[in-house]
Amino acid sequence: MAEPVRVRRLTDQEGQRLQQIVRRGSTSSVRYRRAMMLLASAGGNRVPVIAQLVQADEDTVRDVIHRFNEIGLACLDPQWAGGRPRQLSPDDEDFVIQTATTRPAKLGQPFTRWSIRKLAAYLRKIHGRIIRIGREALRCLLARRGITFQRTKTWKESPDPERDTKLDRIEHVLDRFPDRVFAFDEFGPLGIRPIAGSGWAEQRRPDRLPATYHRTHGVRYFHGCYSVGDDRLWGVNRRKKGAANTLAALKSIRAARPDGAPIYASWANPIEAHFGPLRQFTIANSNHHNHTVQTRALHAYLRWRNANARHPDVLAAQRKERARIRSERGIRWGGRPLPAAA
């Protein structure tokens, strides 16, 4: 049987970037949906589940995953273009991109960053390789290759020496025991205020939400739990974070599998891909009057989502296949325990 299609292991930077795109939801719809596909696949979701999540064809999901495995995050911006042949060769374009992403000081220029004018002038004067390109063409080339003008940021990478070992254990459990894998996370703070979003409206007549001057309702935090095998999401709003609320969420996970057999928690978090739609369809473009109304909206969406998350035939087929694999390998729940993946 062929291996299921899934993304390669994400680096810390790739995972953080995908989470930013999904959580903020302010980028283009193409980038947003493709980021959801990749994040959901990295969390252990299979292609039929991802296709249902983003309302796309399964072949499209497979193409995006294969493209990410080939070129990385560049697949978020597909190149759909035509027109006359470009004046620069691929080698020239690569050289322009390399120059634009190199600090000018390393090339003997007295700047800390390039401007479009300075970069175009420098390219015309390089000894032995003259590249004639206008400022607007240069701007379009940079945008087409995913080079944008942005703030410099610092970053941190996981210092855990056992990071790869833990990820191997997580992937092993996701493949062998999906019905025993759960994810937990929280997002917030959730305030009571009109929140901008998007929706269908007449051209040049967008919906308007009233502004607020005083916010007296405080904030809440949504504690969410996700069952990977059942593709079921649930959660509750709390006044604050804390160990007691986290413990209550973990107890709800144990209550979902009361047989006492081992369960596993995934910190390479599959729930992240499902928080994006939760924000987009309940928080964005909303004007809840208080936290009670906001909580009801969240729970109403969760009920709808769990009822429409996956086609019953697909779920039944996957359960049947997992039962067959367990029977062939002599696997039983509560047997030899695997290392905890948390």
Structure description:
The chain has 12 helices and 4 strands; from the N terminus they run ααααααααβββαβααα. The protein is of the alpha+beta class and 342 residues long. Strands 3-2-1-4 form a 4-stranded mixed beta sheet, sandwiched between helices. Strand 2 and strand 3 (232-238) form a beta hairpin. The longest helix has 18 residues, at 291-308. It is globular, with a radius of gyration of 24 Å. The two termini are 29 Å apart. Residues 329-342 have low confidence and may be disordered.
What is the strand content?
A: 5-15%
How many helices does DSSP assign? 12
- Strand tally: 4
C-alpha termini separation: 29 Å
From the spread of the alpha carbons, the general shape counts as: globular
Strand order of the largest sheet: 3-2-1-4
Order of helices and strands: HHHHHHHHEEEHEHHH
Provide the helix percentage. Answer: 40-55%
Low-confidence stretches: 329-342
Main sheet characteristics: 4 strands, mixed
Radius of gyration: 24 Å
List keywords for this structure.
12 helices, 342 residues, 4 strands, 4-stranded mixed beta sheet, alpha+beta, 45% helix, disordered C terminus, globular
Summarize the model shown.
This protein is an alpha+beta fold.
Topology:
Elements lengths: L11 H13 L4 H14 L4 H8 L3 H14 L18 H11 L15 H9 L10 H10 L18 H14 L4 E11 L27 E9 L4 E7 L4 H14 L7 E2 L6 H12 L7 H18 L3 H18 L13
Parallel strand pairs: 1-4
Antiparallel strand pairs: 1-2, 2-3
